[in-house]
């Protein structure tokens, strides 16, 4: 166990709840730390339900292609906590992470604070100590009361598509959820808005209007669409004719559009736009696994894929991606959290899968039991079974169908475990 891992384990016990949306504890600890959030480079703040991580990755790729140095904050991590904090382009170094965490732990002085809040404070501390041109902040949950929402005057705010998710924290309806996401909008700061359902867009526009924040919205001020073997982005400044995004899936054109709209607001060039769509890398978003123990188990005749989409909108995007791939017997290996709408997720995938093998997420207390995942799959018409883990599931599938397309899916926490175990 590394020094930072030991500190992170201690920080997990500082609050009885994993999620407790409030800004009071953040303001308290940041004040004790000297308010490092006021000393970080200009912020691009990104909220939304789906596509935040991919959009952030493309914005970063575009900015870095123009020579900018970029801090980036994202969550959750997949294999190592360090993935959450990228300092001037590089994952935070272990000594720097441990030092920031220890300083935050001391400043907190044992008071209640969630794991996400205190680690976000550590990210601000790290960002404040290294020069850069931009800071990309991805909201953890919601927006209005998220720990990242302590930046008074960001350079730009971005809201990716909003859909139903985390209803126990954000509200039962799309307008209520959109209101939480729109909480990142700040007075007179431009907000880039991705494709939205009408109910969500009305809420976002009303919030922006009340704060005199200019809106740069899909369908009104910019558009992005596939075009032959590439894609186009267009706004009042002109048209960018670009390759298809390197990230796989038709939905990545939508994510690319949001990223390109943000880059346009930041003054990016056509060359930077091209780099944004071609150079971005974002693991566990329809990622092809081509090495490692699980790849060896699958054998060289099978395809092995990994995706961390975990809500109905993610299921729909994944289904569209599967529909675009060459025809091949497709078998899912699925593990979900018990907080997710598994029925909505699986319903979109059912027409594109020959079977589903359900597994528990190893080491995750909030895993949905494999038996319940299998029952949900059966209810939407899938041929469903269970296995003790991903390795057994893959062996069962290739034993029946050596040339299968195997997709491990359902939760980012499962995806992270797969990447660690398959490394």
TrEMBL record:
Uppermost EC category: ligase
PROSITE patterns per UniProt: FOLYLPOLYGLU_SYNT_2
Keywords: ATP-binding, Folate biosynthesis, Ligase, Magnesium, Metal-binding, Nucleotide-binding
InterPro entries noted in UniProt: Folylpolyglutamate_synth, Folylpolyglutamate_synth_CS, Mur-like_cat_sf, Mur_ligase_C, Mur_ligase_C_dom_sf, Mur_ligase_cen
Domain Mur ligase central: residue ranges: 46-262
Pathway recorded for this protein: Cofactor biosynthesis; tetrahydrofolate biosynthesis; 7,8-dihydrofolate from 2-amino-4-hydroxy-6-hydroxymethyl-7,8-dihydropteridine diphosphate and 4-aminobenzoate: step 2/2; Cofactor biosynthesis; tetrahydrofolylpolyglutamate biosynthesis
Domain Mur ligase C-terminal: start-end pairs: 300-411
Known role: Functions in two distinct reactions of the de novo folate biosynthetic pathway. Catalyzes the addition of a glutamate residue to dihydropteroate (7,8-dihydropteroate or H2Pte) to form dihydrofolate (7,8-dihydrofolate monoglutamate or H2Pte-Glu). Also catalyzes successive additions of L-glutamate to tetrahydrofolate or 10-formyltetrahydrofolate or 5,10-methylenetetrahydrofolate, leading to folylpolyglutamate derivatives.
Similarity remark: Belongs to the folylpolyglutamate synthase family.
Protein name: Dihydrofolate synthase/folylpolyglutamate synthase
């Amino acid at each position: 166990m590394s020094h930072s891992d030991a500190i992170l384990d201690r920080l997990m016990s500082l609050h009885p709840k994993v999620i407790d949306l409030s800004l009071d504890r953040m303001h308290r600890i940041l004040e004790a730390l000297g308010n490092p959030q006021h000393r970080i480079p200009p912020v691009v703040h990104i909220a939304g339900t789906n596509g935040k991580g991919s959009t952030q990755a493309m914005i970063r790729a575009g900015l870095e292609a123009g020579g900018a140095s970029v801090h980036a904050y994202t969550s959750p991590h997949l294999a190592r906590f360090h993935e959450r904090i990228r300092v001037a382009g590089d994952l935070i170094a272990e000594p720097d992470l441990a030092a920031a965490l220890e300083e935050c732990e001391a400043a907190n002085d044992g008071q209640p604070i969630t794991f996400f809040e205190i680690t976000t404070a550590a990210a601000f501390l790290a960002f404040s100590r290294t020069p850069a041109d931009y800071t990309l902040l991805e909201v953890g949950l919601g927006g209005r009361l998220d720990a990242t929402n302590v930046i008074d005057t960001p350079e730009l705010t971005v809201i990716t598509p909003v859909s139903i998710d985390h209803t126990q924290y954000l509200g039962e309806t799309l307008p209520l959820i959109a209101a939480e996401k729109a909480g990142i909008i700040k007075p007179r700061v431009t907000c880039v808005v991705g494709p939205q359902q009408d109910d969500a867009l009305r809420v976002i526009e009303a919030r922006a209007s009340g704060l005199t924040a200019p809106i740069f919205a899909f369908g009104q001020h910019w558009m992005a669409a596939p075009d032959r073997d590439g894609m186009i982005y267009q706004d009042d400044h002109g048209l960018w004719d670009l390759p298809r995004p390197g990230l796989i899936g038709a939905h990545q054109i939508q994510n690319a559009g949001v990223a390109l709209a943000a880059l346009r607001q930041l003054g990016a060039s056509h060359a930077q736009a091209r780099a944004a769509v071609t150079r971005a890398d974002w693991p566990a978003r329809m990622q092809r696994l081509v090495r490692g123990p699980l790849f060896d188990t699958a054998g060289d005749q099978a395809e092995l894929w990994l995706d961390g989409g975990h809500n109905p909108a993610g299921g729909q995007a994944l289904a569209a991606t599967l529909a675009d791939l060459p025809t091949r017997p497709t078998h899912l290996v699925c593990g979900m959290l018990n907080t997710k709408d598994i029925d909505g997720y699986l319903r979109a995938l059912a027409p594109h899968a020959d079977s589903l093998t359900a597994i528990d997420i190893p080491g995750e207390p909030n895993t949905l039991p494999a038996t319940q995942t299998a029952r949900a799959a059966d209810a939407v018409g899938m041929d469903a079974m269970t296995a003790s883990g991903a390795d057994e599931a893959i062996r069962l599938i290739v034993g029946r169908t050596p040339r299968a397309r195997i997709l491990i899916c359902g939760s980012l926490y499962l995806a992270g475990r797969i990447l660690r175990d398959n490394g």
